[in-house]
Amino acid sequence: MAYNIVTIVGSIRKQSFSLKIANALAKLAPASLKLDVTTLQEISFFNQDLEAAPAADWLAFREKLQKSNGVLFVTPEYNRSIPGVLKNAIDVASRPYGKSSFIGKPIGIIGNSPGPLGGVSAVKHLQNILPGISGPILGQPEAYLNGVGDAFDDNGELTKESLKGVLQQYLDAFAAFIEKQNR
């Protein structure tokens, strides 16, 4: 049996490194994990006034998360934090109050950047936002992928062997974490 993991891409740019990394992870995943790469273009803005009659896109996103065995965030860093679209998706999924679609779901977080820091601030912000609305967060290994600008070919395929090794190591740890949390 493969565990279904909603893999949330924190960027909506067509050629985003986060999307390329999420797709690479899906290909590298062990047989025990099925990574469902999920982009956020279709999720409308959260507005508490609409909670009584939530939008269809909110309900679909929440249901996808609720049916999953875990969530893996793959995000860039924007202005020392997470992108607005990712925060919006978290707000949509964590509502209504007390009924977060992340509750009980084991969480993995991978930050990335073409620069030298690898999205450290974005990861740290997710680690601050998620407790209280999610399940346990994988603490080790941490994943801050730097220098990802030259890691993919023109077709979006991962070509940087050093990055492939880091992703494989993270996936192996994440698979063991998911297995332990879903017993």
Word description of this protein:
- This is ACP phosphodiesterase.
- GO terms for molecular function: FMN binding; oxidoreductase activity.
- It is a single chain.
- The longest helix has 21 residues, at 161-181.
- Helix 4 links the parallel strand 4 and strand 5 (143-145).
- This protein has helices at residues 17-28, 56-66, 84-93, 120-129, 161-181; strands spanning 3-9, 33-38, 70-76, 107-112, 143-145.
- The chain has one domain (3-182): Flavodoxin domain (Rossmann fold, 3-Layer(aba) Sandwich).
- The protein is built from 5 helices and 5 strands, in the order E-H-E-H-E-H-E-H-E-H.
- By secondary structure, the protein is of the alpha/beta class.
Question: Helices, strands, pairings?
Answer:
Blueprint: E1 3-9, H1 17-28, E2 33-38, H2 56-66, E3 70-76, H3 84-93, E4 107-112, H4 120-129, E5 143-145, H5 161-181
Parallel strand pairs: 1-2, 1-3, 3-4, 4-5
- Beta content comes to 15-25%
CATH superfamily: Flavodoxin domain
Instruction: Assign the CATH topology.
Output: Rossmann fold
Strand order of the largest sheet: 2-1-3-4-5
- Please tally the β strands and state the result: 5
Average residue-wise pLDDT = 96
Structural class: alpha/beta
Q: Would you identify the regions where 5 or more consecutive residues have pLDDT less than 50? A: none
Radius of gyration: 16 Å
Largest sheet: 5 strands, parallel
State the domain count.
1
What general form does the structure show?
globular
